[in-house]
Amino acid sequence: MASSMAKNLIRDNVPLSRFGVLAAQLESIVASAAQQSPDPLLCFDLLSDLISAIDEGTKDSILLWQRRCEDALYSLLVIGARRPVRHLASVAMAKIISKGDGISIYSRASSLQGFLSDGKRSEPQRVAGAAQCLGELYKHFGRRITSGLLETTIIASKLLKFNEEFVRLEALHMLQNALEGSGGNAASSAYAEAYRIIVRSAMGDKSFAVRIAAARCLNAFANIGGPGLGVAELDNSASYCVKALEDPVSSVRDAFSEALGSLLALGMNPEAQVQPRGKGPSPPAKKLEGGLQKHLILAFRKASGVHCRNVRVGLTLSWVFFLQALRIKYLYPDSELQNFASQVMEMLDADASVDANALACVLYILRVGLTDQMTEPTQRNFLVFLGMKLQSLEAGASVKVAALRTLSYTLKTLGEVPLEFKEVLDNTVVAAVSDSSKLVRVEAALTLRALAEVDPTCVGGLTSYGVTTLTASRESLSFEKGGSLQFELDSLHGQASVLAALVA
Predict the structure, then answer these.
(1) CA of 201: how far to CAs of 80, 207, 273, 285, in Å?
(2) Global pTM?
(3) Cα separation of 91 and 133, whole Å?
(4) How far apart are the C-alpha atoms of 85 and 91, rounded to whole Å?
(5) 198 DSSP 8-state letter
(6) Among 182, 105, 96, 171, which Cα is nearest to 139's?
(7) Measured in whole angstroms, how far is the alpha carbon of residue 10 from the centre of its chain?
(8) Are 178 and 149 in contact (CB under 8 A)?
């Protein structure tokens, strides 16, 4: 009682801060809610000002009104505020605890869990508001309240049974924030339950927004080290993602593409995989062997039917997310990216036909996933690697076209023609001018044009070489040459294409 009187005296003797005024207004609105529902626009403006006042206020000014303001925010949430209002109320709650006395995080999280555990299906707005606030608290203080993660996942499972889409959506947003906020520090049972909820309940939801949220939860699992997920779970999760690429909604496919890339990147890095508490001694994490071959390369080549293009585009994005995760999250040196180029090109057929859609997908991966992430020294080496690819006996027309077009792009990106590439030019790009495939010959001509654009000093030499070779080919061409006639005609077409490209 004496403590309460002291606090009242302090408040009476201290000028009312802007935060205090706004908190008092919020209390007044909540107190009259039984007679009159709070006006959403008034609440939105008030909460926006309140958040600004928290950012600008001192810790002492926050402490004076912290408990009362938290109580008012909690009351606003559980009386059924609409989404924009409950979002701001949740953010304000987290900011007050962060800037004021952090000890109240435990009681607030506990009271929200209690409310959600008792939540009724007839009160969807109230339940959604509490779920959003709990998720926001996990986002900021997850490592301090990891002990409640299992209860939170059980609550999420309960909320996913609601008929209202927005409640199921808030349940998964709460779960995603809880996973990311707690990292891999919670009990293994909590992560096992969370994983079960995602793959068994959420991924097949009739709402596309809920399916997107499920994919983001799966992605969150990968980002925190996949606690509790062994090789079997990683493999199964990747298979679920590949299947989800047949979804009719493009944003759903995009979300699962990102999740697939993150899961495969984690599978390639067992040292980053997390073993949660409470599981006892466990064998060291293992690498997901053959994951790229099974879930990216073979899945790409097997894609067929009405979903073929959607699946291919989804796998293309997964490749890019995978490569970017290796470089950014797992800190692979860019020199190691080149090792994946051959695997990417494996997705193209080895026969003479060229599938324009498959080729476009592979080119996107080679550009965005590889070339754009390389530094200049690595791009120089990559040019030589691509040149060697042209000499490969196993390389089909599609692979050669992909290599040549990526060569052009890399040359333009680099802005110069490295000496080491000039040394292999005759045996690679120039040799491709006489290839038996018309598409390869034309692409080789365009690559030489790109080379000339980057290094104008070689234009004269290329033109002179082209004219001389073209003239020699015309003079030596004879219809009596039998089997070699086609090769000479191809060479003649290739040289003409080079000259046309240079003149253009």
Answers:
(1) 26, 12, 25, 27
(2) 0.88
(3) 8
(4) 10
(5) I
(6) 182
(7) 51
(8) yes
Grouping H, G, I as helix, E, B as strand and the rest as coil, residue 187 is: strand
Residue among 338, 232, 238 nearest 296 (CA): 238
Token reading at 225: 């080290």
pLDDT band at 199 (very low <50, low <70, confident <90, very high): very high
Rounded-to-integer distance, Cα 424 and Cα 417, Å: 12
Give the C-alpha distances (Å, rounded to integers) separating 501 from 75, 396, 432: 72, 23, 15
Task: Using DSSP, state whether 347 is helix, strand or coil.
Answer: coil
In three-state secondary structure terms, 257 is helix
CA 113-173-152 angle, to 5 degrees, is 25
Distance CA 447, CA 433 (A): 10
Alpha carbon separation from 456 to 386, 462, 467 (Å, rounded):
22, 10, 18
The CA distances from residue 339 to 107, 332, 386, in Å, are 52, 12, 12
Encoded amino acid at 490, one letter? D
pLDDT digits (tens, 9 = 90+) for 254-269: 999 999 999 999 999 9
CA distances from 32 to 41, 75, 81, 410 (A): 16, 11, 14, 67
Tell which wins on pLDDT, 191 or 478: 191
Which residues share a beta bridge with 277?
187
* Lookup: tokens for 437: 């495939």
Amino acid at 113: Q
- Please give the Cα distance from 36 to 30 (Å, whole number): 9
Contact 100, 138 (CB under 8 A): no
Q: Where are the beta strands (DSSP E) in 2-85?
A: none
Tokens of residue 336, six digits:
């190691």
Q: Which two tokens stand for residue 241?
A: 């993602």
Token pair, residue 404, equals: 């040549």
CB distance 458 to 426 below 8 Å:
no
Per the listing, tokens 């935060």 go with 19
- Nearest 5 degrees, angle CA 241-CA 246-CA 251? 80
DSSP β-bridge partners for residue 187: 277
R_g of the chain, CA atoms, integer Å: 31
CB 287 within 8 A of CB 267: yes
What is the number of other CB atoms lying within 10 angstroms of the CB of residue 398?
A: 25
Q: Which of the listed CATH numbers 1.20.58, 1.10.3470, 3.40.50, 1.25.40 matches domain 337-457? A: 1.25.40
Distance of CA 171 to the CA centre of its chain: 21
The torsion angles phi and psi of 248, rounded to 5 degrees, stand at -70, -15
Structure confidence by residue, pLDDT tens digits, 420-429: 998 888 888 8
Query: CA end-to-end span of the chain, whole Å?
Result: 91
Query: Any idea how long the chain is?
Result: 504
Domain ranges (residues) in the chain: 337-457
If one compares 1 and 320, the residue with the highest pLDDT of the two is 320
